[in-house]
Design a protein that fits this description.
Length: about 675
């Protein structure tokens, strides 16, 4: 079946290099590097020969990242799908090879490359000449070699590759050690796969001698030798494959091309024929023939080329979901533009995306595909940046509430979780939270503290029955409490354990904030209109407390430490309750600070404070440095070499004044009685 492909491999190097400039978790970058799988090595040519060394007229090209080990290559292995395999198979071995390739065809690539599986293979009946040694070595067929990677053939070096070593032992193939560890120590029963010093690596017939060289230097020497002698060339390889971009299903963007009936030539639609939309279909189930469901829309499929008037047919495969998800963020910048993908000025203003919050499951699919798509758009001048997402944050998982598990033996007696007895023979029993207590770092039964329990939080799932329904939390505590608690549970990037009891703490904080501004409830539970604030000028101390809160909240928002930003606002509310007055200018600023965290409560307070339009239109408050400087400092006081206490003094205080303050302090003066 002919398929549409996107040539993502042409962008492999750029996708790798530009990772260095991104503020992404290193683990995600490493996943993309491994997925792209760039490796440097060499392609080497081995001439196929028969057992007597007669040329068979075929050359096998192998890719290797370790050309330095060429003297240790004692056999070749080709993939069961290799295009040359039929011509390499001898008549004596043909039945065995065909049977083996048929079995291999039924296995997935994952099954074939599983490191733990037993290696299997069959001899092809042909041989090849090692260009470095001149030796004739056998050609085998094995399913651990894939046609999709490299050239579909490898030179096997069993002394220095674990898979080749296992295969060679099973089929009694020669093992020649050609790399010695720098310290000389290695297990003779295992393959040594690291770099080292070359041994057993010279040939008078070929003129190649790399004995005594370090592996890396030897690899360069071998690559240079094969290039100059016509046996191969330097090669960069990738695990990344071109991107299959077609689906045989109804839903998806149709490809805007047609095929002329007489020549089968593919013709793109003109721009004034776009967008091409899917036809309405009552039946979009699979056809049963392998053809896409769109073939059922016969009137839609049959069309005419507007330029030539020739009869034509439409493409019936559709695009995958990536056709939209790779660039949706650009459309957000200019969603109603009917003439272009995104306006250049708007893209230049908004792009690139400052912060992308998403799970690690997108690391090598959406995030890699979107980067490729963006680079293509950059190359044709649609976007002004090379990368779509400047900063990536992987949010932590919210786990279900802690579950407490106790154990009973066959007689129904409790067994402590730290018991020497085998817990696998015991019956597990969930214990409600009100039946347990914490002693030190452990959880025990209230009724029997000698019985320790296992405490663990699990991923929320319907099967465990530990899913928290947000609607239930909102109906009991309000949307702001739920929102605030999710931020207060811990750092955004960390996994956190849900606690319904914990939400009550932030709910009380919001209640205290409300009463700070509005006042205590009336006897009937309602609140009077207006607020408790006054239009008095704030004191320096009040401004200092406010601006310290502003500075900390702003910094913590930038660093996505929302939990500590909420702590700073809690500290502000605690301090404000001790004030004799609540200056309106101070409370206004605090409500604006609170608004991203508890928008509903903040909006209500904002209108009660006398503002006519939404706080969403207000500037977020910024701290002023003049209020962030500490005007007082704490000094320790020593008397005759011993620290006796501390005093709080003005930062500008002179040494004599400080001495007088210390000497007159009631807690310190007693140590000076009768002394100088």
């Amino acid at each position: 079946m002919r398929q549409w492909m996107l040539r993502i491999t042409s962008y492999a190097d750029r996708l790798l290099e530009d990772l260095d400039d991104l503020d992404w978790p290193e683990s995600i970058k490493e996943m993309q590097r491994n997925w792209i799988g760039r490796s440097e090595g060499a392609e080497l040519e081995f001439c196929a020969v028969d057992q007597e060394g007669h040329d068979l007229g075929a050359k096998l090209t192998v890719y290797t990242t370790r050309p330095d080990t060429i003297f240790g290559a004692t056999y070749l292995v080709v993939a069961p799908e290799h295009v040359l395999l039929p011509s390499l198979t001898s008549e004596e071995q043909r039945a065995h090879v065909e049977e083996y390739t048929e079995v291999a065809a039924r296995k997935s690539e994952l099954e074939r490359t599983e490191l733990q599986k037993e290696k299997t293979g069959v001899f092809s009946g042909s041989y090849a000449k090692n260009p470095a040694t001149g030796e004739i070595i056998p050609i085998w067929v094995a399913d651990y070699v894939l046609a999709s990677y490299g050239t579909g053939a490898i030179m096997a070096v069993p002394a220095h590759d674990s898979r080749d070593h296992e295969f060679a032992l099973k089929y009694e193939l020669p093992i020649i050690k050609v790399v010695s560890p720098p310290n000389g120590n290695c297990d003779p029963e295992e393959a040594y796969a690291d770099d080292g010093i070359m041994i057993n690596s010279s040939s008078s017939s070929s003129g190649l001698n790399i004995n005594g060289m370090l592996s890396q230097d030897a690899a360069l020497e071998v690559t240079s030798w094969v290039e100059s002698n016509g046996f191969g060339k330097k090669k960069v390889n990738y695990k990344l494959r071109d991107w299959l971009f077609a689906r045989q299903r109804y839903w998806g963007e149709p490809f805007p091309v047609i095929y002329l009936d007489d020549t089968n030539e593919m013709v793109p639609l003109t721009e004034n024929q776009l967008p091409l939309t899917l036809p309405e279909l009552d039946d979009f189930t699979p056809t049963g023939t392998g053809e896409p469901p769109l073939t059922k829309a016969a009137d839609w499929v049959r069309t005419t080329d507007v330029l030539t008037g020739k009869p034509a047919r439409r493409e019936t495969s559709t695009m995958p979901q990536w056709a939209g998800s790779c660039w949706y963020y650009l459309r957000f910048m200019d969603p109603k533009n009917s003439s272009t993908l995104v306006d250049k000025a708007k893209e230049s203003y908004w792009g690139p995306v400052d912060i992308y919050v998403g799970g690690a499951e997108h690391s090598v699919l959406h995030l890699l595909y979107a980067r490729f798509w963006h680079k293509v758009l950059y190359d044709i001048g649609v976007v002004s940046t090379k990368e779509p997402f400047k900063c990536l944050i992987n949010q932590g998982l919210i786990l279900g509430e802690v579950e407490y598990t106790a154990y009973r033996d066959n007689e129904g007696k409790w067994v402590s979780a730290d018991s020497d007895s085998s817990l696998s023979d015991c019956i597990q029993e969930k214990v409600p939270a009100d039946k347990i207590t914490k002693v030190g770092d452990n959880y025990v039964l209230k009724d029997d503290p000698n019985i320790r329990l296992n405490a663990r939080a699990y991923k929320m799932s319907k099967s465990r029955g530990n899913v928290i329904n947000p609607d239930d939390v909102v109906s009991e505590y309000g949307a702001d409490s739920l929102r605030l608690y999710e931020m207060f549970m811990g750092p955004l990037r960390d996994s956190k354990t849900w606690s319904t009891g914990g939400i009550e703490g932030v709910h009380r904080f919001l209640g205290r904030t409300w009463r700070l501004v509005v006042g205590a409830p009336l006897p009937d539970g309602s609140y009077k209109d207006g607020t408790m604030v006054t239009d008095v000028e704030p004191t320096f101390e009040q401004l200092r407390v406010l601006h310290k809160c502003m500075a900390r909240v702003s910094e913590e928002i930038q660093e996505t430490r929302f939990n500590t930003a909420i702590s700073a606002m809690m500290e502000f509310v605690n301090a404000a309750y001790k004030w004799d007055t609540q200056p309106k200018s101070v409370i206004d600023s605090f409500v604006l600070l609170l608004s991203p965290f508890a928008p509903h409560l903040a909006e209500e307070l904002w209108f009660r404070l006398g503002h006519a339009q939404s706080l969403a239109h207000e500037q977020f408050p910024e701290a002023k440095n003049e209020y962030l400087k500490e005007s007082e400092i704490v000094l320790p006081v020593q008397i005759n070499g011993k620290t006796r206490g501390t005093i709080l003094v003005d930062k500008e205080c002179s040494e004599d004044d400080v001495f007088q303050i210390a000497a007159s302090d009631d807690r310190l003066s007693k140590y000076l009685d009768g002394k100088a």
